[in-house]
Amino acid sequence: MWEFMEREVIPNEEVFLSQINTDPEKRWKTYPPIIEELKQKAKAEGLWSLFMPAEALEKDGWGAGLSVREYAMLAEISGHSMIGAEVFNCNAPDSGNMELLYRYANDDQKRRWLVPLLNGDIRSCFAMTEPAVASSDARNISTSIQRQGDDYVINGRKWYISGAGDPRCRLCIVMGRQIPPESSSSSSSSSSSNKNAVASHVQHSMILVPMDTEGLKVVRPMGVFGFDDAPHGHMEVIFDNVRVPAKESLLFAEGRGFEMAQSRLGPGRIHHCMRLIGMAERALSLMCKRAISREAFGGTLASRHTIQQTIAHSRIDIDTARLLVLKAAQEIDEKGSKGARGLIAMIKVVAPQMAQRVIDRAIQVHGALGFSQDSPLPHLFIAARTLRIADGPDEVHERTVALLELSKHARNRL
Amino acid sequence: MWEFMEREVIPNEEVFLSQINTDPEKRWKTYPPIIEELKQKAKAEGLWSLFMPAEALEKDGWGAGLSVREYAMLAEISGHSMIGAEVFNCNAPDSGNMELLYRYANDDQKRRWLVPLLNGDIRSCFAMTEPAVASSDARNISTSIQRQGDDYVINGRKWYISGAGDPRCRLCIVMGRQIPPESSSSSSSSSSSNKNAVASHVQHSMILVPMDTEGLKVVRPMGVFGFDDAPHGHMEVIFDNVRVPAKESLLFAEGRGFEMAQSRLGPGRIHHCMRLIGMAERALSLMCKRAISREAFGGTLASRHTIQQTIAHSRIDIDTARLLVLKAAQEIDEKGSKGARGLIAMIKVVAPQMAQRVIDRAIQVHGALGFSQDSPLPHLFIAARTLRIADGPDEVHERTVALLELSKHARNRL
Amino acid sequence: MWEFMEREVIPNEEVFLSQINTDPEKRWKTYPPIIEELKQKAKAEGLWSLFMPAEALEKDGWGAGLSVREYAMLAEISGHSMIGAEVFNCNAPDSGNMELLYRYANDDQKRRWLVPLLNGDIRSCFAMTEPAVASSDARNISTSIQRQGDDYVINGRKWYISGAGDPRCRLCIVMGRQIPPESSSSSSSSSSSNKNAVASHVQHSMILVPMDTEGLKVVRPMGVFGFDDAPHGHMEVIFDNVRVPAKESLLFAEGRGFEMAQSRLGPGRIHHCMRLIGMAERALSLMCKRAISREAFGGTLASRHTIQQTIAHSRIDIDTARLLVLKAAQEIDEKGSKGARGLIAMIKVVAPQMAQRVIDRAIQVHGALGFSQDSPLPHLFIAARTLRIADGPDEVHERTVALLELSKHARNRL
Amino acid sequence: MWEFMEREVIPNEEVFLSQINTDPEKRWKTYPPIIEELKQKAKAEGLWSLFMPAEALEKDGWGAGLSVREYAMLAEISGHSMIGAEVFNCNAPDSGNMELLYRYANDDQKRRWLVPLLNGDIRSCFAMTEPAVASSDARNISTSIQRQGDDYVINGRKWYISGAGDPRCRLCIVMGRQIPPESSSSSSSSSSSNKNAVASHVQHSMILVPMDTEGLKVVRPMGVFGFDDAPHGHMEVIFDNVRVPAKESLLFAEGRGFEMAQSRLGPGRIHHCMRLIGMAERALSLMCKRAISREAFGGTLASRHTIQQTIAHSRIDIDTARLLVLKAAQEIDEKGSKGARGLIAMIKVVAPQMAQRVIDRAIQVHGALGFSQDSPLPHLFIAARTLRIADGPDEVHERTVALLELSKHARNRL
């Protein structure tokens, strides 16, 4: 896989960037042809949908039968390039969506959505985060899903829906709050405040909504610092009385949204974290090359102790983070996502901060080049920075780690 | 001034951003009309070109007669908004250029360039940094300036020339290496390697070049993490046999480029650092407002100890940095830039890092909103991050501080 | 004063240490004669009790009429040596006790205790912290003070009572919880739990107890890491039915203990923080001397960039901390301790951490010498470390800073 | 082993401390009897000399046949208590000395020194570091070893010779510079300056010197902050014409001192680092217990987010460090110390800093108790702090890591 990255992916990063349309009108209606070429090559070499759970290979012939830990090492490699994951059909949010459909969709839903996703023919998005509420606290999600006859009617506003800008995106998996059929939305809000936390966690469902459904409006691309990450994008999306047939659109069962969302997170965090490690390795490699080639004040940067210290700290930071993530991956393989929740919380804190730090140092060593479009470093930096917020802020995960630690010493005392 | 910021500037930030042209063709040929409206209002209220040295008021009626320290406090206020400095005609690089022209230009040059700059009628840029060399080491600057008859002929490539994208930009002050009239550029490079550091510092000159001179080509906008900061921009500029009349174009004298560049830096760094403090104050203010208004996990963010700690550290970081910068400003007033060089080096290390840290925390408290176009935080963050590289990386300044400290204990022993 | 430090104090540090008795029996019954010699010299030169409030000079002829800010700069100088403060009769806890007596004691009490303290004839201690409770939360103080007839009877256990080991220590100012005359201690504890926070703050009183009072038992010296700081010490003290005459022993008034303790803290924190800055300056000076003189790997330590960076960061850390403490001192002069409470909280967080960091770096540069008895660095390090805990942990002060900051944006919303 | 620690070792820490003689005269002539009791128990349970290389078990019946990685996990457990390693006869410097003797001593030397050490009947020390030179640069070691007839004569001053204070210490392994038999010490110093680095590394030898040899004077205990770690101690030792028979005293061969010292370091650093991890685990455990039991400001410390954050960071710091050290141990098992030198350098930077940080946080959570003699935390803190200096400062190891990293990208370019 590394050989494929070096031969096909990294040399084509510039081609990819040059093929993104700069005209604001067409920016979201086209996509770089190079990406489809690379996907075909990767598929032909069997480097395809590797993230799929091991059991999917023998049962359905999907994926490569890899354990979470085995795939983790490949996810690191794909992370060296911002386009790596998509080339191998392993990119978020499609990979998480595919895993979700694999686990919870019925056969018809699999045929309609999972198969073309696994083939790389379509793209998908996952609509959870909302601008008005703290999405890290699940009880806050307010987009409503209401049963009306044989349909569900969805109303709400979501943002930072990654992939929703892509012209190939066909499916939107919407997470929303289930409103009892008889209640109006106004009475719902008053009654919900009377319910306790446990109850509120079983109020959410996931609905499969085709992107071209009436009422689903992609309002605008949200920025990540100065980037818009076209053509995938991170879009603001309005659901304005979006109506879909209940039977074919409900994923799994009503009220099971959080349970499914949780199951999606374990391996997904491994993937994110390992890609972050790949990103940090890329940055360190660029840092070293720059340090060797750049001269200032009578010597190469590499000859200075301060730069050497920076390189040493980066190597240490990367290697320790990798060991922790691989340990978490192994624990998922052995105990499942729930049993590994302490380690998963730890890597979610460690890996994004580590990557931000290492990439920031690489930028500093590069000078102005480091924040220019001539370097992959700005994209890497922003990706690492935003992952400190996506999937829950550090503080939430630190609390998980702390409570597990404290529970070793005394139960029921917090 | 604070009242003007709150009344006129901050509410118009969104207007400014909405008036920037998104069409890549027109992006660099227009500018937001709001900025000129605000400039007229600021001028009318006397909030204009305040950075000018105190003596300029009585001698020529320019500026407001403020000391460096007095202006520093206003620079902080203007830093609360990314458009503040320009509204008050105090923005870099124009302010530094005006100061340079005020100190070193002859009367004709002042009439032609300084007066319209002070009036805010034109904009200017300062072409120093080059892609191929470490510009923090002055000896590396390689753009050539050669006397040919009555002209200077300039050849070279510069990048990150801020303001060069603006359609109102008329003047480019070019820093280059003076080549002896008789020597060819190839022999120059071989001979220069035989010269010592002192000699190489007196090889540079500054030339005033009108932006529309033949051979001066603005090649492309350079990115700063996804942003292009249109319409000013940070442009790559090629000087391809740019020919200007020697007499009217030479600033001050041949070989005095570094001396002038140094004098430009002292007050300029105060301005940058105080604006960074203003930026950090803006971020802290946004952080507090968010913390008070956002609820998660059963309480406002402001009620959590970790958020309180973040706020406290930010207040401490800002206040200590401000005291240090004001101390440096006072020392410039009392001892000049050279006498204050230790403190100037210290603030260049402290202020950008502090601002990056505080703004990064504010982003974290905001969640996804914090890196979106709906918040000023991404622009603030990027501005702080790039200022850790502009004007010399931290390491160079740390060395200055260390050598001054060591020299108290023993001379001539390093 | 600096001249006196260099001439008399610093050269006698080793003498002082060599005169401390190593025999555990006699360790707390003698004190180094050099300290009394130096005190006489300092007194003769007018460098004496300089911390006393400015008004004390004109009213009573005590102190030197210095503002808090003026004295702060002298406190820094005295901090260069661990024995500096005592030589100038400005050492904690005596200085705080003198200020307390000056403000709140009646004339008889002043004659008996304040005058000999100001003369340096006796020493004193301040008994507040208790092993069983978190003393940073005032409501927890549990030592009881009960009126019985014309006496107060005191019962409780205190520790880390600095100065209580000194054979010259004659006075102990005890902070305790006032128990209503009629109530037994058991009913008191149950009733106290029904009272709100405001009430609990006015339950405390301060009592002046001669060290030789029956029932006051100095149990053992408490360690600070491996040091015992003989002969002053930080002692564990038991009050076992200690009985003193109420009229002559009550300081100020019943229930006003916290009010007095608070007033003691403002200037006291300035003194501590400025001494910490002096300690850090001493460490930086030792670091530079070592860096210049020590050779390794083919050059002096001072020639290495990493060491230069360490020196630069230390200079920056010290200078920023000093500016903040002086600003706090000035604010106390202008607005009183209450008006300056935000800044006072900030310096309590900043200065000890800064000093610990700088001294830790100095130790690292010194190698093994840095933690040996041949260097003052271990004492300096431990002093800085313990001051991160004494007078309330960082978190309490950070909360004060945060709440003040948040209150600018919205009142009554936390 | 953990069960033995909980049952026998940890409960006896206080007994150990109480049995150390406080009389300065007798402090270095006795040792706590409890330690010998515990050693007998550990030996009886087979928890003895576990550090010995795996091959020593089958060849000579020594040790437990553990790989470096297997022993590492036990070293962590022993690190929970400051007396753990000695109880299991695995304490530095004896363990390193035993390994050295096992690898390089001849049969007579093994009989005389190794066997009683393995039995725990005697103790030993390793005399390398010198006060006058930077011992991290091996070329600086200046103690002279000169062949005179059938003897070696040793002259020099060493300090921080751990274990040399113990009355049971019988053997001192001295590292010194071999002086050619004919040369005087003065000519040696002038000639040595003409030799290059490679040559200077083969000038050193190791000599086995009985502690009671005439001329070997234990001058004084060196302090580590305020501790002296009696009865082992870290002594200053003078070699004043110490004369020993050449044949029986030379270890291995002349000029091979550094080669032997290097081989001693690999596994030794694993042991140190794993014990540091055990120390950090002990600190975290104490931190959690304190957080659960201590109340302040209306709740337990454990209920506060800031404390939870501290606990989470500590858990993350410990677990990442452990994974790195175990990885290094495994690499030693697979590739030898030289092949693992990058990882060994990394753990030497990571583990002591990590332990210092975690223990410092534990102290902060404990308040004054945390630096008192009633808590093991001060000893743990000091041990971690000094290990940042022992075995070479961080900077030397960072350089090793950096050069290995840079060498991946270009050889021979620094």
Give a count of the beta strands of chain A, DSSP E runs of length 2 or more: 7
Round the Cα radius of gyration of chain A to an integer and report it.
22 Å
Mean pLDDT of chain A, to the nearest integer, reads 92
What assembly state would you assign to the polypeptide chains in this entry? Answer: homotetramer
Q: Tell me, briefly, the overall form of chain A.
A: globular
Q: Percentage of helical residues of chain A? A: 40-55%
Gap from first CA to last CA of chain A: 48 Å
Structural class of chain A: alpha/beta
Percent of sequence in beta strands of chain A: 5-15%
Unreliable stretches of chain A (pLDDT < 50, length at least 5) are 183-198
The major sheet of chain A is characterized as: 7 strands, mixed
- What pattern of helices and strands is seen along the backbone of chain A? HHHHHHHHEEEEHHEEEHHHHHH
Number of helical stretches of at least 4 residues of chain A? 16
Biggest interface, residues from each chain: C-D, 45 and 46 residues
Output the keywords.
homotetramer, 414 residues, alpha/beta, 7-stranded mixed sheet, 51% helix
Structure description:
The structure is a homotetramer of 414-residue chains. In chain A, helix 7 runs antiparallel to helix 12 and helix 12 runs parallel beside helix 14 (341-366). Chain A has helices at 2-9, 13-19, 33-44, 54-60, 68-78, 84-87, 94-104, 107-119, 185-192, 197-201, 246-249, 257-293, 305-339, 341-366, 377-387, 394-407, and strands spanning 123-127, 144-148, 151-162, 169-179, 204-210, 216-221, 234-245. Chain A has 16 helices and 7 strands. In chain A, 51% of the residues lie in helices and 14% in strands. Chain A is globular and about 80 Å long. The first copy, chain A, has 414 residues and is of the alpha/beta class. Residues 183-198 of chain A have low confidence and may be disordered. In chain A, strands 1, 2, 3, 4, 5, 6 and 7 form a 7-stranded mixed sheet that branches. Chains in contact: A-B, A-C, A-D, B-C, B-D, C-D.
